[in-house]
Design brief:
The chain is an alpha+beta fold and about 180 residues long. It contains 2 helices and 8 strands. A hairpin with a 4-residue loop joins strand 1 and strand 2.
Length: about 180
C-alpha cells in the first residue's frame, strides 16, 4: 500500500504555505457564512413563537401556508374546502380589480405578504388579499397562544377593519377539548 505524504499529488512537490493559508481562509469564511445563514433561519422556523406553518382560515374554508419570504412573512392558499365554482370549474380570482389576473386559480394564490416582525412579538405592515371581494387590506398578525393567530385587515387605520382568527392545522381537536372543559 502506498503511503501519502504531504505535497504528493502537487506537481511542484509541495503546496506552498501561502496557498494553504488561502485555502484555509476560504474554508473558514465559507463555514462562517453557513453558520450565519443557519442562525438567521432558526427564528423563522415553525415553532410555538412563530406563525410559520399551515393554518385553517375562514372557519376551515381554506388552508393557508405562512412561510418566510426573505425577512418578511407571506401566505399562500394551499387547500380549499370548495375548490370548484357553481359550474364545477376551478375557483378563480374573478373579483380581482386587475382583469389580467382574473383567470388565476384561488388555490395556490398568495393572499398574505409583507408582514414584518415587531419588537412586541407581533407582525405588521403586511397586506392581505381577499379573493372573494378582490380587495387588498393592510394587515397585522398576533399569535394568541401557540396555535391561533389573529389577523386584522384594515383600510387606513386598524380601527376601521375586521379581525379573523386562524387555527394551526393539526391542533383543532385539541383546542376544542381545551375550550369545552
Amino acid at each position: 500500500m502506498h503511503e501519502t505524504r504531504h505535497g504528493e499529488g502537487d506537481p511542484s512537490g509541495a503546496i506552498a504555505k501561502g496557498q494553504r493559508s488561502l485555502i484555509l481562509a476560504r474554508s473558514v469564511r465559507a463555514m462562517a457564512r453557513l453558520v450565519a445563514a443557519l442562525a438567521l433561519a432558526v427564528p423563522l422556523r415553525a415553532s410555538a413563537t412563530s406563525p410559520v406553518g399551515l393554518w385553517y382560515a375562514e372557519g376551515g374554508a381554506a388552508q393557508v401556508a405562512i412561510e418566510p419570504c426573505g425577512a418578511e412573512l407571506c401566505g399562500r392558499v394551499v387547500w380549499l374546502r370548495s375548490p370548484l365554482d357553481e359550474d364545477g370549474c376551478d375557483l378563480l380570482d374573478r373579483n380581482n380589480p386587475d382583469p389580467g389576473l382574473r383567470n388565476r386559480k384561488v388555490e395556490g394564490l398568495e393572499v398574505l405578504r409583507g408582514l414584518v416582525p415587531q419588537a412586541d412579538g407581533t407582525w405588521a405592515n403586511g397586506r392581505i388579499y381577499d379573493p372573494a371581494s378582490g380587495n387588498t387590506y393592510t394587515c397585522r398578525l398576533a399569535l394568541e397562544g401557540n396555535d391561533r393567530v389573529r389577523l386584522r385587515g384594515y383600510v387606513g387605520i386598524p380601527l376601521i377593519g375586521r379581525t379573523t382568527t386562524w387555527i394551526r392545522v393539526g391542533t383543532e381537536n385539541r383546542l376544542c377539548k381545551e375550550e369545552h372543559r
